[in-house]
Fold this protein.
Amino acid sequence: MLFSSTSSLWELIQQRPAVVEFLEASGKPVWNQLDLSVDAFCRQAGVKTGSWLREAESIPIPKPDSIWSREPLYRIVDYLVAEHRDFRNKDLTRIDFLLDTYSAPIYPDVYQLKLAYQSFKSFEEGLLEHMSEEEARTFPHILRLEACERNATLLPLTHRLSVKTFAMSQGHLAESLLEKMIAEIMENIRKHRDQERDAVTTEKLFRVLEKFQQRLTRHARIENEILFPRAMEIEKRLLKRQNVSV
Ligand SMILES: [Fe+2]
């Protein structure tokens, strides 16, 4: 279970952004009482907490081949947050494990792989930081912007809107970090393969890395080509509404 009756609405939205639609459908105010617990919210709405939570948790995560240009931003962010979870809990853990198995005695010359492991660890650190930044600041800001468009009385939390700044400075960070990492790791592994006859695990590592590269590239594309441009358009409209020059 991702959340409980004591989770705040804010925690709910951060972990499962698609829940926004479900919360707003209750007809109760959401955005001006984000600290409220699920339990208190359900009491307000006159519904049973347990069944409400089960329903909220059963909201499906959008499919990777969704037509993103037609999806509301909260569903795009829902997909991206779920993918971050997979990157953290599955992909990075698996690559770490595969690279680490090379310390086994069967591979006496592990120098090249140790270099690959170092490259991977610095990439992992950068990617984790990047994803945390998106989840803590950028995505919540985008969700709020979109909510402001649905509700004219709601205002963005900060007067200084920032999707543009984030997209310009951080938007391609994951991709460039990845490219650097893949190039370094592939080079190290190639050298290692030249030295080792038994390359079964090396091939497996190549395949896992390639798949991860494809997923991360597609993820970055959804952010840079769909999510951020659409959020920036909303920012522009809201700034116009507030008579701030853009
Ligand atoms: Fe991301």
In short: Residues 164 and 232 are 6 Å apart (CA to CA).
